[in-house]
Amino acid sequence: MYYIDDNLKLIIGYSNRIESIYDYENVLIGNIYRGRVEDVLDSMNAAFVNIGEEKNAYLSLKDTKNTLHEGDEILVQIKKVPSENKAVKITTELSLGGKYLVYFPEDDFIKFSNKLEKEDIKRFKKIGEKGVLYRTKSRGASLEDLQSEINYFKKISKNILLQKDKRPTPKLIYNKNGAADYIFKNIDKSDEILTNNKELYKDLKDNFNITCDESFGLKYSSDLFLDYKTLFNERVELLNGGNIVIEETESLTAIDVNTASFLGDNSFEDTVFENNIVAAKEIARQIRLRNISGIILVDFVDMKKKSHRNELLKVLKEEFLKDESKSEVYGYTRLNLVEISRKNNGEELRLKLD
User: Fold this and answer.
1) pTM score above 0.90
2) H or E segment to which residue 85 belongs
């Protein structure tokens, strides 16, 4: 079940607990702007572009095919939002990501995920559209579904390119991170959706199993609301009686695992192992939902058995496969901390209450 609260700009996937959460307010990654080149610094191989934000955006000249000059007006797309006080990073290679494919409106290549089989590639070539990268998820899609997604992005691209030379400048031309785009990319047509946005309902009702209730809010369900609030607690209680403590600093995130009131029915070593496995699953979930990025160090309860230590890393890696953002579980440090890194994917989750 998906809940869309347009007052708070949140989309929540919920099945007994929150499985996914997306804040579509003020999310910059993927947005397309018409910007003005303010400075070209050959020594840095970079340009700074005014896109209407507080600071000029950083464009590596490696990310553009054309020679730039001060005053040029160009279309750019945000590809990374660094930490505070740094310029957002942009590119002139425009792309629109969907559930099955990525569409590049100004390119003419056809590319395929390395994980696709030869039969899939042969089937997709029949579509014949240029500027398309087929994702791994396209494997199970029908040609009709793929063509439908391509047509959707071609329509959006046409509107974007029509504004290429139209003023004012700077100007936001395309907000990639709206609710509709997220739904098309992440939600199956058979999934139930409840929203309080009447216009969104009208736009999606022919393609999705969506219901509109304008009185809906986050407190609509007490279980949903309580689970949402735990995503901002430093201490998270585990269902078995243990807990994890999440502390974020400017340079890294430290997570401490405790058995607390969990006793278990086996030996101490097995009890610790069982608690660590439960904690590992919840840690991966919390990192994904909170959108924590960068260096992450986890202090699990010490285990003596090598088989337990290896199994714990295996479980962590499997849980991070559910994460859209690129993550890496590196293993144990000399101090027996588990080291993880996660790619920056926009701002961390912010507390919103209606």
Assistant:
1) no
2) none
